[in-house]
Specification:
The protein is α/β, with parallel strands linked by helices and 716 residues long. The chain folds into four domains: 2-126, NAD(P)-binding Rossmann-like Domain (Rossmann fold, 3-Layer(aba) Sandwich); 149-317, Dihydrodipicolinate Reductase, domain 2 (2-Layer Sandwich), CATH 3.30.360; 339-516, Rossmann fold (3-Layer(aba) Sandwich), CATH 3.40.50.1260; 523-715, Rossmann fold. It has 20 helices and 32 strands. The strands form six sheets. The protein has an eight-stranded mixed sheet with strand order 3-4-5-2-1-6-7-8. α13 links the parallel β22 (488-491) and β23 (513-516). α1 (11-21) packs across α7 (312-329) and α15 crosses α20.
């Protein structure tokens, strides 16, 4: 959830506010309005001479300084002095300044908030960004400008054309609707033509869009020139763009097709092929609408006519810009990727996840599945190839109480030596000064540190802020000892990054180099491809039997664009909600309990008359329906078996689906760890997550809030 404030509720501030009311990604925390009282805001929002929009929102005054609109509890402030407003205190992280007053970085520094977006071209060198043109160049800047409405219309299409065909030169005239600075009747004391009445004149006017476009697309310097005329309409403007491309054979239809194929079609770009006029584009959110019929091919040049709602679509662009900033600011950064960190002749500590399933035979742990160890090898080998002074491998294993021998990691030594083909020394004393002494006598080679979870401080780290002084001091001393173990700290334990443990979360406070490895990068990239797809179709198959565990992920996945969720297993009977993109298993096999030998076929799960029957496996018809769904999608995410795979009679559906997925080509398949992963063999081409719990929490957090889970926050 993006916590946002709005400074100024004029034409742009109001349009931004109205769009955010119904946007589930945002939480409006505070507004600063100097000319509308809190008792007048409801009417001010619901009535407008220019726009028609959804006014189905609830409004309730809580106090003189607070109101509730839909689910937004909003602090109301009325102060012209920016220094007097503590936006952070009200919970704001981002602020859209729509006053038209704070147009420089220096002035915006008076806002006590993490990020400021100026809703106008800046008066200094504050970096400007336009979504769909250069927003991908954003690199974490704290104060930016969203440029002008005309720049947001013209920049995306110029970027598109220059990237595809290269622009030789262009000129434009923006036929612009009236603005709040113009006059209804002629007045004196004006030095330009805007002193004349807008009601009955076409008024030539200057525009800063030419220079603003060059700020957005520097390669168009000395190639673009523009002017403006103001016309007596309240809303919607028209851009008359005359352009010469390096490729003289390009025609308007080529531009149309280029837009239709663009990933921002229907958001930044749109096409109009009807005989529409300006008022037909009122309250549209797309800033660049090509009017095909009004555009012209002119031998070596072309004239493109482009519509934009200079208030509503510009406000939508500001919102998209904030969303992209938020995504960047909460995305793990490549600078923390361990291959970008100097490890030569450095002591490296690498936190991994060796919490492998074992069977205890004659007091010895025998590994049942070494998938997590094998998945860590690439990171280990890469570190070693960088010639560190030494490498210490660290991990949890089980949930020991004190130093239980059965949870010692010593059993991993021969396994690691087999895979690495190198000697691995065991640091049996764990994190203490004895180990440090041992390490410093001959710091070289590969070490395995004893189970970190033998130390209660590892998990107690999550409560450090609430600790008594004595307990806190003990933990801080433990952390100080741990950070002396190396010069560089790497985390690649994806299966554990949803836990606030010392060895994962404290690294950023060590004043030493730290980063993440191959496994985290691979896991995050594949999951982000699921969440951030633009046009690919997604099928999420969610099975299992615990509805409380899976309901949050179902409710998250159904929000992804172009997504269908298929609910299977015992969940299919428990899941009662109705959604257009959520489907359920219809038939299956089951019985009163698992001890019954012969499964009963249940033709219609919804209408089971015998409430004692349980669903233990997917039915043939449902499996066929699932295979048909799979044909239509590009990305498949599967978490949770379709039946009780521990029972021989009820695992066939899950196995058949796994075999089917393994034979597919040209599809991205993500297996969400846990029980589902146990069906995989070593020949699979699918992505199998090493952390079922971490993956689900990461998915939910990213979809619902856009933020990372706790163990990845060091890398943003």
């Amino acid at each position: 959830m993006i916590n946002i404030g709005i400074n100024g509720l004029g034409r742009i501030g109001k349009c931004v506010f109205l769009q955010l009311i119904h946007n589930p990604k945002f939480n409006i925390k505070c507004i600063n309005v100097v000319n509308v009282s809190i008792t007048e805001i409801e009417d001010y929002l619901k009535y407008d001479s220019s726009h028609k929009y959804n006014i189905d929102f609830s409004f309730h005054i809580i106090s003189d300084t607070e109101c509730k609109i839909n689910e937004h509890i909003i602090k109301y402030v009325s102060d012209r002095n920016a220094k007097n407003i503590n936006w952070k205190e009200f919970g704001c992280e981002y602020l859209i300044d729509a006053t038209g007053v704070h147009l420089t970085t220096e002035k915006c520094l008076n806002h006590n908030v993490d990020y400021v977006i100026i809703s106008a071209p800046p008066k200094d060198n504050t970096p400007s960004f336009v979504f769909g043109a250069n927003h991908e160049k954003y690199n974490g800047e704290k104060i930016i400008a969203g440029s002008s409405c005309t720049t947001n219309c013209i920049s995306p299409i110029l970027k598109l054309l220059n990237d595809e065909y290269k622009i030789n030169n262009c000129n434009f005239t923006t036929i612009h609707a009236t603005t709040a600075t113009q006059n209804t009747v002629d007045i004196i004391n004006k030095s330009n033509r805007t002193n004349r009445s807008i009601l009955n004149n076409i008024i030539p006017h200057t525009t800063g869009a030419s220079s603003a476009v060059v700020n957005i697309i520097p390669e168009l310097a000395n190639k673009i020139y523009g002017t403006s005329v103001r016309v007596p309409v309240l809303y919607c403007s028209l851009l008359d763009l005359n352009i010469e491309l390096e490729n003289k054979n390009v025609v308007v239809d080529d531009i149309k097709n280029l837009i239709l194929q663009n990933k921002h079609f229907k958001s930044v770009f749109d096409i109009n092929e009807k005989q529409l006029v300006s008022c037909d584009f009122r309250t549209t959110t797309t800033p660049t609408i090509l009017d095909v019929a009004a555009s012209m091919d002119m031998n070596s040049r072309m004239k493109l006519m482009v519509w934009y709602d200079n208030e509503w679509s510009y406000s939508a662009q500001l919102i998209r810009l904030v969303e992209s900033m938020y995504s960047f600011n909460n995305k793990i950064k490549s600078k923390y990727y361990f291959e970008n960190i100097n490890m030569v002749n450095q002591g490296v500590v690498c936190r991994l996840d060796f919490n492998v399933p074992v069977e205890n035979v004659n007091d010895n742990n025998e590994i049942i599945d070494d998938f997590r160890i094998v998945s860590s090898l690439k990171t280990i080998e890469t570190i070693l190839s960088n010639n560190p002074k030494y490498l210490i491998l660290t991990s949890h294993f089980g949930r020991p109480k004190d130093r239980e021998t059965k949870f010692s990691l010593e059993f991993l030594i021969p396994v690691l030596e087999k895979y690495l083909k190198k000697t691995v020394k065991f640091l049996k004393n764990g994190i203490d000064t004895l180990t440090l002494t041992e390490l410093k006598t001959n710091p070289s080679g590969i070490y395995l540190l004893e189970n970190i979870r033998f130390h209660e401080e590892e998990t107690n780290y999550a409560h450090i802020e609430k600790m008594e002084s004595t307990e806190k001091l003990k933990l801080e001393q433990f952390i100080d000892t741990y950070k002396q173990f190396g010069d560089v700290f790497i985390c690649d334990a994806f299966g554990c990054v949803h836990r606030e443990h010392m060895s994962i979360c404290a690294m950023k406070n060590f004043n030493k180099s730290y980063g993440y490895g191959h496994l985290i990068r691979k896991e995050v990239d594949i999951i982000d491809s699921l969440i951030n797809n633009s046009d690919k179709k997604i099928l999420s198959i969610i099975g299992g039997n615990k509805i409380n565990d899976k309901l949050p992920i179902i409710n998250s996945l159904k929000q992804i664009k172009n997504s269908t969720v298929y609910v299977a297993g015992g969940l299919s009977r428990q899941y009662k909600e109705t959604h257009g993109n959520v489907l359920k298993m219809k038939d299956g096999y089951g019985h009163i309990n698992l001890n019954m030998v012969k499964p009963i076929y249940i033709e219609n799960i919804e209408n089971i008359e015998n409430n004692d029957l349980n669903i233990y496996d997917i039915g043939r018809q449902s499996l066929n329906d699932l295979f048909e769904l799979i044909k239509e999608v590009d990305i498949i995410f599967w978490n949770g078996p379709l039946g009780v795979i521990e029972h021989e009679s009820y695992k066939s559906g899950s196995i058949e689906l796994m075999n089917h997925l393994n034979n597919l080509i040209n599809k991205t398949i993500i297996i969400g760890g846990g029980e589902t992963a146990t069906l995989i063999d070593e020949t699979t081409k699918m992505h199998v997550s090493t952390g079922g719990g971490a993956l689900l929490e990461y998915l939910q957090s990213k979809i619902i809030t856009g933020k990372n889970i706790i163990g990845l926050n060091a890398f943003v």
